[in-house]
Amino acid sequence: MAYRKTPAEIRRLEATRERLVSCATEVVTEVGWAQASVSAVADAAGIAAGSVYQHFPSKSALAVEVFRRAAGREVEVLGEVLHAPGDPVERLSRAVEVFARRALQNRGLAYALLAAPAEPAVGAERLEFRRRYRVLFAEVVRDGMTRGALPQQDDEITAAALSGAIGEVLVYPLGDPEKRAVDTFIAELTAMALRCVGAPRD
Amino acid sequence: MAYRKTPAEIRRLEATRERLVSCATEVVTEVGWAQASVSAVADAAGIAAGSVYQHFPSKSALAVEVFRRAAGREVEVLGEVLHAPGDPVERLSRAVEVFARRALQNRGLAYALLAAPAEPAVGAERLEFRRRYRVLFAEVVRDGMTRGALPQQDDEITAAALSGAIGEVLVYPLGDPEKRAVDTFIAELTAMALRCVGAPRD
DNA sequence: GAAAGAAGTGAACCATCATTCAGAGCTTCT
DNA sequence: AGAAGCTCTGAATGATGGTTCACTTCTTTC
């Protein structure tokens, strides 16, 4: 045998792949899925368009990877907050705040994940992640009902409503972003979410 | 002058245009915006692809017309119910029911209007119609607050949340459509909407 | 240093549609 | 009937952008 990938070479290839994914994420964040052409992404990563195909079998596969990474982080964070011990209402409240703060911190990415027009493969992935959000929310709602902290309700409908409501409010933030203080905005959003699950009023 | 459109001829052309719009709506309902190519739509209407351009300057213009017609009907219906005289909570409740029933009656169209991937021109139109939904919901929420029927809240956030929540619940109806009785589903959805605005509990 | 094999390049290729257009077929009016 | 002007057709055109591939460049091994 005259050639065998050396560990350093493997690392270098993996690093290139990582860079490709993260540059693609940036491009998508900035210009959306539709405008993120293979050559734009390749340029951003400093490689030729053809080289993308050394790392991914198709543009779709790269797009799905980008989506999974970014969406996966969000689901993970949300899951941690929601699975923390303690009062379900308190956990939901914190989860909404964390989710909203992260989305407002990186609006471009939030929009890309939640609502931006995308090719079918990414759309399918989005469905899957929405499902995960619903599962997480449904758990905390069920928990609240079990503990008697929340009124009886259809946990799956409430969960879908929560993810839809929060997404809509965050994606089309109302009015001038500067005008409305972020904290006030988040407080109102959280209050809405708590009303939505029927949490006891103060 | 040797030729002038006769009234009958004008009617015939308008009828063709109407047929084109309604056939396009059907195609979009069935296969979504992405798959609704000019030739597919023309075939459905029984005309040649080129003839579409006798009635619309571009595919986008036709798509926008299709969207406006269908979405306009929904906004109108919703507006009528929400503007009826009477208790705001009652009006909201009826509005959610009407909206949901119509959406479930024609899921394909509901999906096309609310969430299906679409070209930018349709996306822009969708934003405009979402804004109209928000305006309608915000009005009823304000009305409720004024009358003391609803707790103080940010009407715009609640309105966005309502439209997002209802849309999400309807677009990804949970489980088998047959399994869950439509009436139960709608009752739960309505209950959620009322909690969301903080309506007094029974 | 040279052979073997992999990665990287980017211009050419190709598929997909929206759009155009030259000609065929109608309708209107004299 | 015939001229004029319109609608309709559908194959050709054109733009876009993902994908391929012959070639170059780099790495490894001996």
Automatic annotation (TrEMBL), chains A, B:
Keywords: DNA-binding. Residues 14-74 form the HTH tetR-type domain. Coiled coil: none annotated. It comes from the Bacteria. The keyword DNA-binding applies. Residues 37-56 bind DNA. Gene3D superfamilies: Homeodomain-like (1.10.10.60), Tetracycline Repressor, domain 2 (1.10.357.10). This is TetR/AcrR family transcriptional regulator. It comes from Streptomyces luteolus.
